[in-house]
Each structure stands twice: as structure tokens, then as C-alpha cells.
Write a structure and sequence with these properties.
heterodimer; A: alpha+beta; 4-stranded mixed beta sheet; 7 helices; 4 strands; B: 524 residues; alpha/beta; 5-stranded mixed beta sheet; 22 helices; globular
Chain lengths: 157, 524
Amino acid sequence: MTNVEPWNETQARAIIEAHAALDGALLPILHAMNDQFGYVPRDAIPLIADMLNLSRAEVHGVATFYHDFRTEPAGRSVIKICRAEACQAMGCEPLVARAESQLGISCGETTPDGRISLQAVYCLGLCATAPAAMIEDRVVGRLTDEKLEHLLLESGR
Amino acid sequence: MTVKIFVPTDAAALSVGADTVARAIVVEATRLGADVDVRRTSSRGLLWLEPLVEVAVGAARLGFGPVTPDDVADLAAAGLFDPQRVAHIAHHLAIGNVEKHPFLSRQTRLTFARAGLTEALSLDDYRNTGGLRGLERALSLGPKQVIEDVIASGLRGRGGAGFPTGIKWKTVGATSAAQKYIVCNADEGDSGTFADRMLMEGDPFALIEGMTIAALAVGATKGLIYVRSEYPHAIATLHKALATARTAGLLGHSVADSGVPFDIDVRVGAGSYVCGEETAMLDSLEGKRGVVRAKPPLPAHAGLFGRPTVVNNVLSLAATPHILADGADSYASLGTDRSCGTMPIQLAGNIKHGGLFEAAFGLTLGQLVDDIGGGTASGRPVKAVQVGGPLGAYFPVSLFDTLFDYEAFAARDGLIGHGGIVVFDDTADMARQARFAFEFCAIESCGKCTPCRIGAVRGAETIDKVMRGTDVDDNLALIDDLCDTMKLGSLCALGGFTPYPVRSAIQHFPEDFRRDHRRFIAAE
């Protein structure tokens, strides 16, 4: 989330226009908003509804159904730790607990200084190099206390 | 003479430092003045050895792994860049001729024939290794015979449901509609599975060829690949491969000069597990919440935007080029009675030799976990293995004689699903695992049907009571009853199969559900 920008209606309109011709354009638009602004701003909902000829309720329903779409700005770095079975078998839970206590937040929250968002994910497809994590698009396998420590210290600076 | 060195680009390899290793090799070679050509290929799937560095010596490739950047100077000093010396390196990371490694030599690789050998985005590599032969034959056979071949191959859906792929194609082929779709289900959300990811990252043209064959067979002109957002590397690779395929005339207004139009788009999921269910996926593709649809109508009749739609898993589609190229009989001759061909099995979790093992159906679970997988990574005894993702049953060691095929697993109240095997050692608490199954179902339920939406929440609460030692027998009976309701009353496999991990955990590991109760009583 290093290159997110503040809410800007002109940009939002441009995003919607760029995707509006797609069949089933709503998810691609919400993804683009999420990427551009770091979340799907509340102001984007009526705009999308208007331009796609949907009701606000429909757009809100979709935006809030999917785990990926944030309703609040993300931290400068988003650390996703896998908590699915293969990673459980390799001890992801103590790592999650460590990250939570060190950052003073729970999964799904952002540090008060806006540096790191911590997020649980259910499978990154790195199940043979578990435990696994992802920071932005960078994948980390065979996660250890030391590797996690490094990520928590370095991310979002 | 230039020495060719291969380092994988697969996300699993990247996750353990393949990029830094590749860079370290280049730096070290430059420092030593060695003439090396570092090629970035797909992964062999021997994932416990990643980053696996291979050096070409004649026709063979010698492997070293798992290599860290710090090992590179050591290996180079021992002769990594010297074709005369590399075969004689007596380093603890040397694994010898990779093809002869038992993990690889015991496999039958059809879908993953190119794994570790080719560069993912090289269409030349793809062609030179038998790629596009299936498409050529499909074009010469015509739609009807293609469908007959896929039926005759015995290929069943590799996503988990195991429905015959050819029958699905036949149903869509028999419809008449202005628009038909091929939807590739690449929402590989099951923990312990990564074969779709490896194929998309490592051999994307195989998927494109498979989808094109399907399109020709059923008369579809538009394809969509629904990839989960957790797979950014696969998404990037697919976009590049599709652009290459278009430039080469394999996609577009006339597929391979056949006059038939077909093109493929990538759509990215948004973190919802239930969107791996085909009808929820269709709704998601339409821009809606990923809510499961009641069937009928089948997607084959009224799928994406109400049009006839083939929905197939990545592995099913990627198996078809081989079936077309080498014939249905050769594929059908592999495997067991009704489970034909090969299955890319994924060994994961607490396992010594984790990775991708493609083999004909019919190995036993014990062979896979103990002989091939080498037991646990922790070195402790195996306690349980979960087969088939979060909705799959937990099997104890006493059931390790179960054959790995659709029917044998069903006969023992399990499922092979998408072929993932997650190993747990004896530190696992099966009550916690059962609780997690309910919890996961509650997090991911689309909310449409009551047994899943409410049942999962009540199930987790009730297991909490069991774990606290409250009316254990009564609450276990209640859970059993709830499992019946969920199994029989849910609209899709999310609610319907959550009872598998729960019940198998209770049945095979009853002591874990009374552990805290005993401690509680002892404390009194």
C-alpha cells in the first residue's frame, strides 16, 4: 500500500469510466479503488452506483461482502499472515500472537501511527513452505520468529 | 563454454529467497569471471528443496537445494560454475541428477510435464515441449469428437466435485445460445493446495490451450479466468501469457487461423472462499456478492449472465491438451476403476518433503505421507492428515491404507477434493481443528442458507462448551445433530462439507474432546 493517494473524485470517476464497459465491472472497479486509495472510500459508493446504474445498496453490499475491500484506509504496509490449516500445522498461531502483541493490535486492525495493518488470510498457496505471509505482493515462506521480527520492524517505514 | 543455471520463479521459491539467490549467483559469477547464463524457470515442485538451483551438465541437470544466498560463494568455490567439477561437488546441498531424485522419478507427470524445465512465458519453450499439439488435433477433429475424446479419457473435475469434464462440455455443446462462456475456476482457496497456482505461474500456456480446446468443443467465444487475489504472481504471469498468445494468433478473432474467435480475460477475486463454489463465482464475475445459487438451473444451461457456461478447474482444463495430443486411451489407462488419469497431489503442512506429486490415482495415503512425504517436518509422529482442504476429513494413521481416489475416500467419509494433503504432528489438538472448521465456515459463509450461516456459528459455540468441559456428551450429540442439518440442508459444499472435518475429528480423536474436561475435573 505504499503508493496510495487521498480520495479524489476526479480520479475515482476516471477509474469507473475506464472499467465501465466490462461485463460485471463492479469488482474490477472496487479493486481499482482499493489499489488507488488504499480502501474503498464511502464517497465512492454513490458515484459507482450512479455511473453503473445500480442502487447504492447493491454497491455497498458488494463492497462489504468481500474481505479484500477495505472501508478504512490501510496502513502504509499490510502484513498478511496465513492462518489456514497447513500454516497451523507449522505453528502460525504463535507467530500471529507475537505480531499482535508486538504491534499492540489484533488482526484486521491498523497501528495508531498508520504504519502497519495486520491481516489474517486463509491460504496463500505456500502450504509446503509454511508458515507463510505476504507483505504487499512480496511472499515470505518458512516464517520464523526472526523473519517476523524483521518484517515488523522494517515494514511501513 | 556458458554454463546454464536454473532458478525457479514460482512463488513458493520466491517466498524462500529464490530472487536473492539468483542475484547472488550472478554477482558471484561476475566476481569469478565465470560465464554463466541464469535462466528463470518454473519449479519442479520439490518445494522443501527450494530455492532449488540446477546446473546443466550435458543433457542432465544437477540440483542443489535449499540454497541460501550465503551458500552461493561456497558452492561456487566447490565448482558450481565449472562443468568439469560440478558433478563431483560433495556439498551437503547437492542432490545429484534432479530427474533421478526419487520424489520426481516416482511421478507420472502429464499436467506438470514441463514443471521446472521451461520458462513460463516462453511460447517457444511451450511449443518445443509438445505444447499446442492438443489444440492442433482438436481443430482437426472437430467439436463433437473432441468432446467424445474428453469423455473417453475419464477426466473428472479436479476442483473437488469430480464431475466428468466431458459430460459438462457435452451439455454446453448441446445448447444453442448467442453467447457461451468458458470460466476457469482458479479460486484455489483450499489450504494445502497450490497446484493451480504452480500451473498458472509455471505453465500458463497449458491453461490457455486447455480453455481454447474447451471453447472450440462447445462453441464458446469468451473465456474468463477467475483467480484469487492472494495469487499476485499468477495474475501477472497470466496477463503476460495472454498478451503473448494474442500476438501469436492463438487468441482473438481467429484462433490459430481456424476462423473461430475466442479470447480470455483475467478477473481477480476479492478474498472470498465461497467464490470457489461455481455458482458463487459466476455471481462474483457478474459483479455481485459471491452468493451461491440454487441448482438447477445448471451453469451448463444458465451460467454466466444466464448463458451456457463451462466452469472447470485449472487442472481439469490443463489436462485436456495432453488428452487431445496423446489420446484418450493413454490417459484413461492410468489410475483406478473410475478415477482415471493422474492427479497432481499436493503434500503440505508439517511434512518433511512437501511439494507437488503428480501420479496416477491409486497410491495409498500412507505411501504419500510416509514414503514420499517422509513423515513430518518436525520429526514427531504423524497424528492426523486433512485431505481435500478445509472441508475435507481428518484421517488418522490407522486409515493410511486408504487408496487415493475419489471412491475410496468417499467410502471412508472423506474426499480428495483438490488433492491437498495437510499433515499434522502429535502436538495438534483436534478439538481446536474441529472448532476451526466451524469458525472458517462462519467467516466465509455467503449467508444465503440458514444451516451454513447459523449452523457454523452455533457449531463453534458448542465446541467451545465441549472444550470447557460443559455437558460434553450432550454437546457432542448436539454437534452431531447439527452436522446432519448442515450436511443435508446446506445449499453448497461450504456448509454441506464442514461436517467432514468436524465429525472425523470427533470420531477418530475422541480423547481430544475430553482433554480439558479431565483437566477441569482434576483441578477440582
